[in-house]
């Protein structure tokens, strides 16, 4: 019977989970930043193109991959008007190399005093780790080769 390299499997599989747990602890999360002003829709490209929200010159993705690939925002969030947006700058590979196309990931969006969009930092982190198809398409084949 062949031996299964359990330690290598655990080490490779645990890296994204530990990163997610680290960013899920409120004391270790990046600082939330607020930007107010006029919003518009803009397109940004890194591996693939996405429609993102731009508030007073700050490009915000509604979801992001840990590689830094932004995902398109829903059309109801991209409507022009005066907004208050709260965002965080999540650590990404593209940000590490200085090629990030967005300044942060949208956490909360208020339009005319009404909350239009709200997601916690933990939700965004777990979504980036386990919902981002670009990250999964690149990370897990490399993990399989390592294992």
Counted beta strands: 8
Strand order of the largest sheet: 1-2-3-7-6
Write down the Rg: 17 Å
Biggest sheet features: 5 strands, mixed, barrel
- The CA-CA distance between the termini, in Å, is 18 Å
Helix content: 25-40%
Number of helices: 4
Instruction: List SSEs in N-to-C order.
Output: HEEEEEEHEEHH
Residue runs with pLDDT of under 50 for 5 or more positions: none
Structural class: alpha+beta
What shape does the CA trace take? elongated
Sheet-strand content, in percent, reads: 25-35%
Name the average pLDDT: 83
Short description:
By secondary structure, this protein is an alpha+beta fold.
Reconstruct the topology from this structure:
Elements: H1 6-24, E1 33-46, E2 48-55, E3 58-61, E4 63-64, E5 70-71, E6 81-88, H2 93-96, E7 104-111, E8 114-118, H3 121-130, H4 133-146
Can you walk through the features of this model?
This protein has 147 residues and is of the alpha+beta class. The chain has one domain. It contains 4 helices and 8 strands, in the order H-E-E-E-E-E-E-H-E-E-H-H. Helix 1 (6-24) packs antiparallel against helix 3 (121-130). The longest helix has 19 residues, at 6-24.
What descriptors fit this protein?
alpha+beta, 32% helix, 8 strands, five-stranded mixed beta barrel, 4 helices, 35% strand, 147 residues
């Amino acid at each position: 019977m062949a031996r299964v390299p359990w330690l290598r499997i655990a080490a490779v599989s645990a890296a994204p989970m530990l990163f997610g747990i680290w960013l899920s602890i409120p004391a270790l999360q990046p600082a939330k930043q607020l930007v107010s002003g006029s919003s518009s829709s803009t397109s940004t490209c890194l591996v693939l193109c996405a429609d993102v929200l731009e508030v007073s010159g700050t490009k915000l993705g509604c979801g992001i991959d840990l590689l830094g690939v932004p995902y398109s925002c829903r059309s109801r969030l991209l409507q022009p008007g005066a907004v208050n947006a709260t965002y965080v700058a999540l650590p990404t590979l593209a940000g590490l190399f200085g090629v990030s196309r967005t300044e942060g990931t949208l956490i909360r969006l208020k339009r005319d005093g009404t909350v239009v969009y709200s997601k916690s930092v933990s939700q965004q982190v777990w979504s980036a780790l386990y919902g981002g198809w670009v990250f999964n398409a690149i990370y897990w084949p490399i993990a399989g080769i390592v294992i």
